[in-house]
């Protein structure tokens, strides 16, 4: 889809290119191409199925990412890298997970990036392995959930 579209009920498609806010959850069975612009999910989720990367960023200079929640649906026995192309505003803040051991069952992993200060700083300061002291953190964090324990 390369023009303004209305997406309801929640669709399941093989490929989509969007640059407007989502009115509902969107499930992609193919590839999300992020050319230029921010795909705002709001309270909705972008679901990327399959074990392929699931997306392509065509530029590194323009802001191109998902602002909201991304769910990756991974099959049992999956190993490899999974990237969540997340960010907020004009900041690209991806999450890159690598599974070196096979997943024991089908697994859904959901991640969102939050451009806000943490409510608690319990445990700070920390002393890193190289002796550096960590006193604070950037005003952003990620929320991760999994369908398995």
Structure description:
This protein has 149 residues and is mainly β. The protein contains no helices and 13 strands. 0% of the residues lie in helices and 49% in strands. The strands form four sheets. Strands 1, 2, 3, 4, 5, 10 and 13 form a seven-stranded mixed β-sheet that branches. It is globular.
Topology:
Blueprint: E1 12-16, E2 26-34, E3 37-49, E4 55-57, E5 64-74, E6 80-84, E7 87-88, E8 91-92, E9 95-99, E10 107-114, E11 126-127, E12 133-134, E13 141-146
Parallel strand pairs: 1-2, 2-3, 2-4, 3-5
Antiparallel strand pairs: 5-10, 6-9, 7-8, 10-13, 11-12
List keywords for this structure.
mainly beta, globular, 149 residues, seven-stranded mixed sheet, two-stranded antiparallel sheet, disordered N terminus, 13 strands
Condensed summary:
Helix content is about 0%, strand content about 50%. It is built from no helices and 13 strands.
Q: Please write the string of helix (H) and strand (E) elements.
A: EEEEEEEEEEEEE
Radius of gyration: 17 Å
Provide mean pLDDT, rounded.
76
The main β sheet shows up as:
7 strands, mixed
Shape: globular
Q: Into which percentage range does the β-strand content fall?
A: over 45%
- The number of helical segments is 0
Helix content: under 10%
| N-end to C-end Cα span | 37 Å
**Alpha-beta content class:** mainly beta
């Amino acid at each position: 889809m390369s023009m303004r579209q209305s997406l309801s009920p929640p669709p399941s498609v093989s490929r989509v290119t969007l640059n407007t806010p989502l009115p509902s959850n969107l499930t992609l069975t193919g590839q999300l191409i992020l050319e230029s612009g921010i795909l705002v999910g709001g309270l909705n989720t972008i679901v990327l199925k399959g074990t392929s990367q699931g997306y392509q960023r065509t530029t590194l200079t323009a802001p191109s990412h998902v602002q909201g929640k991304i769910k990756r649906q991974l099959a049992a026995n999956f190993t490899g890298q999974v990237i969540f192309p997340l960010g907020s505003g004009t900041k690209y803040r991806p999450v890159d997970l690598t599974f070196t051991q096979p997943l024991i069952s089908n697994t859904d992993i959901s991640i969102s990036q939050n451009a806000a200060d943490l409510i608690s700083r319990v445990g700070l300061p920390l002393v890193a392995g190289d002796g550096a002291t960590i006193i604070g953190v950037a005003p952003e964090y990620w929320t991760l959930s999994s369908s398995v324990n």
